[in-house]
Design brief:
heterodimer, A: Peroxisomal Thiolase, Chain A, domain 1, two-stranded antiparallel ribbon, 12 helices, 35% helix, B: 151 residues, mainly beta, 5-stranded antiparallel β-sheet, 34% strand
Chain lengths: 360, 151
């Protein structure tokens, strides 16, 4: 029995004036309209996105469960980016415990400085007093990656140019302003070695997916998007214990997803990846098996469509970025542009990763 | 236009350092950096932790490591982050002599305004040593920062 995505709802990604649960409701409503089903036909409500400090309210389930249509029904929430909630929805359906499930992910960055929130995620004994912002953690990986594999500013600038070019054509993307390689290289050094356009900016936005088991899926939607592979894992929280030149969590999650899908990287026709920095773009492609370590810069002009959405570099909502990428991959499958694709998400200091392989 | 409401949280915590943390922080007062050795893989873990996550066994053997080591990575911020110090300041990972893992730390002792100079000075493998606080109180900040061994 296969599990398919039969409905997708996505809001604009921008700085929203509405509270996160109202934006989330819009995404859920759109997904149900897309699938042409009512909320009573859904029997699993899976929630994703960051709660607590980010939106200034603990237990975000209280707010998001009604927005998902889960009033007086059962709901469950998965930590991390909403892309990490997809496996749980899949398992509910695959196990037969559920016929139709919704995954609702909210991403909201505009209510508080995210660096303050992330500072509280650092260990208060060993790490917090060392004043590490999330972007500084990313930059420490960039420094190692560039030094280990001799990757230049010119190489990484190309990523920004490419993502921005794609985002300009994506109605849901946040940062759509085109930029040239020269402009990237001459822009201000923000968090060495990363210049300002090489780091994703924060925004808000929500995404919802409706999942169904094979027979029901085909009844709801003649052309479901099938979930063929899923993988997720985490690496060491102590950054000093990791080899920072590689993304082991993404590599492990990909290995798990490829195994489940019985697929190899060569079968993948498009990728949507959470490139929170320009260097991560290359590092993720390497971890997903598209290039040897240190060689992903050679893929920049290849035929493999990577981040047709514009990637995380252009759209990054704290908690739903991965779900945004998944939705954008699903759109490419729906349009018939590809038959099989991969989406990747990662959180924290890139130590957690989730990977999904979708097909039509 | 929608209305906006400003709110704030102030929640005090008392965090226990545990036995491993206590030994590590107490040693800092004497300008000593302690690690633990995993009895199975033999790695010396700094900062110390109660168990090795790879071998999933207790770490019971204590080892003193040097307060000198080499740079694994560095970053300098030139933008201001809310609630964090004014830029520029440098954070990095240093692998101390005698340790098998790197330790997150601040780096300094040089002019940080020029990132090209930072890159030259703190390139991976560069030798650095701890600069200790005069009045130590048993906190990670007892090490003010790591500076180049040869200035």
């Amino acid at each position: 029995m296969k599990v398919g995505i039969v409905g997708i709802g996505i809001t604009e990604f921008k700085i929203h004036d509405e509270p996160f649960y109202n934006v989330a409701y819009r995404a859920a409503k759109k997904a149900m309209e897309d699938a042409e089903i009512e909320r009573r036909e859904i029997d699993s409500f899976i929630l994703g996105g960051y709660d607590n400090l980010g939106v200034g309210r603990t237990i975000s389930n209280m707010y998001v469960a009604p927005a998902a249509g889960g009033y007086l029904r059962h709901e469950i929430r998965v930590a991390e980016d909403a892309a990490f909630a997809l496996p749980l929805a899949y398992m509910r359906v695959k196990s037969g415990l559920s016929d139709v499930a919704i995954v609702l992910g909210f991403g909201h960055s505009s209510e508080t400085p995210v660096e303050l929130v992330e500072l509280q995620s650092l260990d208060p004994l060993f790490h917090r007093d060392l004043k590490l912002s999330l972007q500084m953690g990313y930059a420490m990986q960039s420094f190692v990656y560039r030094n280990t594999f001799n990757v230049s500013e010119e190489d990484t600038a190309k990523v920004v140019v490419k993502d921005r070019k794609n985002a300009a054509k994506n109605e849901y993307a946040f940062q759509k302003e085109k930029i040239s390689e020269e402009e990237v290289i001459s822009s201000d050094m923000a968090v060495y070695p990363l210049r300002k356009p090489e780091i994703a900016e924060w925004c808000d936005g929500c995404v919802a997916f409706i999942l169904a088991e094979e027979t029901t899926a085909k009844r709801i939607n003649p052309e479901p998007i099938w979930i063929e592979g899923l993988g997720w894992t985490y690496d060491n929280y102590f950054m000093g214990t990791r080899d920072l030149s590689k993304l082991f969590a993404t590599a492990k999650a990909a290995e798990m997803a490829y195994k489940m899908a019985k697929a190899k990287p060569s079968a993948i026709e498009a990728a949507e990846i959470m490139d929170l920095t320009s260097d991560y773009h290359f590092m993720i492609l390497e971890a997903l098996g598209f290039a040897e370590y240190g060689k992903a810069k050679e893929l920049i002009d290849s035929d493999l469509p990577v981040n047709k959405s514009g990637g995380a570099l252009c759209t990054n909502a704290y908690g739903s970025t991965g779900a945004f990428l998944l939705a954008n991959l699903a759109f490419q499958l729906r349009e018939g542009e590809i038959d099989k694709g991969i989406a990747q998400a990662m959180t924290g200091f890139a130590q957690n990763a989730a990977v999904a392989i979708l097909a039509r | 236009m929608v209305l906006k409401f400003e709110t704030k949280w102030e929640i005090p915590y008392v965090h226990s350092a545990g036995e491993h943390g206590t030994k590590f922080f107490e040693a800092l007062k004497d300008k000593k950096i302690m690690g633990v050795k995993c009895p199975e893989c033999g790695r010396v873990l700094v900062p110390p932790r109660a168990f090795c996550e790879r071998c999933f066994v207790d770490t019971t053997d204590w080892v003193e490591v040097s307060d000198e080591g080499e740079v694994v990575t560095v970053t300098v911020t030139y933008i201001k982050f809310t609630g964090l110090p004014d830029p520029p300041y440098a954070t990095g990972i240093v692998k101390l002599d005698g340790a098998d893992t790197g330790m997150l730390c601040l780096l300094g002792g040089i002019d940080l305004s020029d990132w090209k100079k930072v890159h030259e000075t703190f390139k991976p493998g560069a030798k650095v040593k701890a600069v200790w606080k005069e009045e130590r109180e048993g906190k990670i900040t007892d090490i003010l920062y790591f500076e180049p061994v040869e200035k």
